[in-house]
Please model this.
Amino acid sequence: MSHIGEFDLIGRISASFNSSDGVRPGPGVTGIGDDCAIIPQRSGMDTLVTTDLLIEDRHFLLSDVDPWQLGWKSAAVNISDIAAMGGRPTASFLSLALPPDGIDVGWVDRFIAGFRDMSAKFGVPLLGGDTSASPDILFINVTVLGECPHGKALRRDSARPGDLVCVTGALGDSAAGLKLVLERAAAGPAAPLCHSERSEESSPCQALIRRHYCPMPRVPEGLALAACPGVHAMMDISDGIASDLRHILKASSGSGNGNLGPVGAEIDLRKLPLSEEMKHVCALRGWDPAELAVSGGEDYELLFTLTPEAFDAAAAAVRKASGGSIGITAIGSIVGSAADGQEPLIRWLGGARSDYKGFTHF
Ligand code: ADP
Ligand code: MG
Model:
């Protein structure tokens, strides 16, 4: 599949339905292309739907991950797609294909406890799913439903020239945590996690690994941003902003931004919000924090654009919604672009490199 690429493949699937009568999305329905599908209801609310696969050896190492953490993450990454639209999650469905070895009832109980504990943070009941044997590896598929007032979902296609590009929280913690997990897996179970810090719960390495396995979807923050005038486009960061910001630029270069023409972005690498733990571990290991913050995925923070005048009110709203724990940072701006029909352009300012790539599956 590497010759076609993940997003061209999704484009082919989408085109097949869009070119056939009777199976196109109905009026007012938003289908493939955003974090969630948006389906208007008679009640005046829109239903949001998202689904994600988590596959052993692709998204997690069964030998390394704690089942409770994997359960937490499986729910969290889907709830995050509801948060990405500024919606409220309302229900979930869970499908499991279980391999013959490596998993017992105790493992499944712990997995479900993690899935439940994450769901409980936002009051999301599990309403169904499917269970099957798998010939070799573990597959997890989760679907989450959500809702928002009609027409109020924050979409990817609404960024405008002059908007600031902002993120919640800190970037790159999860990617640094993943590097630590892979190092540990390569070195064997007895290897120390960090040079000098072995097992203290509070060590920076443990904190980064926790951020990788136990992301916190920004649901209250997303709801707060959806209620702020001047907030335009939004998505969650699953593949790194180098990839995810391109999705906003590409979608917003179509008709969604009121035909303002193609857009690009300028990102100032000096403004990237980095946690103290990430900076500490990067300094110890000689890792490039900007690379992890921009190209590393799975932070599940929110990436959004707003008018400069809206920034202060949005920052105050997010801080209030998060109980004072989460800030927002402006890392750059949306610019008009001459690159009509080309890949949307991101100019990376203030760093040693001029190009970064995010994560893609093929
Ligand atoms: P996210 O990272 O937010 O989960 P993805 O990048 O996985 O989003 O997917 C982008 C869009 O493509 C979404 O709207 C998703 O529903 C859609 N999509 C992905 N794979 C498929 C598929 N096999 N068939 C139909 N739609 C798909
Ligand atoms: Mg998403």
About this structure: Residues 164-171+215-349 form a domain with the Phosphoribosyl-aminoimidazole Synthetase; Chain A, domain 2 fold (CATH 3.90.650.10). Residues 105 and 233 are 43 Å apart (CA to CA). The chain has two domains: 6-149, 164-171+215-349. Residues 10, 13, 32-35, 52, 81, 238 surround adenosine-5'-diphosphate (ligand 1) (CB under 6 Å).
